[in-house]
Amino acid sequence: MNPVNYLYLAALLFTIGATGVLIRRNAIVVFMCVELMLNACNLAFVAFSRMHGNLDGQIIAFFTMVVAAAEVVVGLAIIVSVFRARHSASVDDASLMKL
Amino acid sequence: MENLIALLVAAPLLGAAVLLCGGRRLDAVGHWIGTALAALSFVFGVILFADMLGKDPEHRTLMQHLFSWIPVEGFQADVAFQLDQLSMTFVLLITGVGSLIHVYSIGYMEHDERRRRFFGYLNLFLAAMLLLVLADNYLLLYVGWEGVGLASYLLIGFWQHKPSAATAAKKAFLVNRVGDMGLSIAIMLMFTTFGTFAFGPVLEATGDTSEGKLTAIGLMLLLAACGKSAQVPLQSWLGDAMEGPTPVSALIHAATMVTAGVYLIVRSADIFNAAPDAQLVVTVVGAVTLLFGAIVGCAKDDIKKALAGSTMSQIGYMVLAAGLGPIGYAFAIMHLVTHGFFKAGLFLGAGSVMHGMNDEVDMRKYGGLRKYMPVTFVTFGLGYLAIIGFPGLSGFFSKDKIIEAAFAKGGTEGWILGGCALLGAAITAFYMTRVMLMTFFGEKRWQPDEHGHEPHPHESPKVMTIPMIVLAFGSVFAGAFFGIGERFVKWLEPVTGFEHGHPPISALTVTLSTVAVMVLGVGLAYVQYGRRPVPVVAPRGSLLTRAARRDLLQDDFNHVVLVRGGEHLTRSLVYVDHTLVDGVVNGTAATMGGLSGRLRRLQNGFARSYAVSMFGGAAVLIAATLLMRAV
Question: Where are the bilayer-spanning segments (chain A) (predicted)?
Answer without folding.
Answer: 6-23, 28-48, 60-83
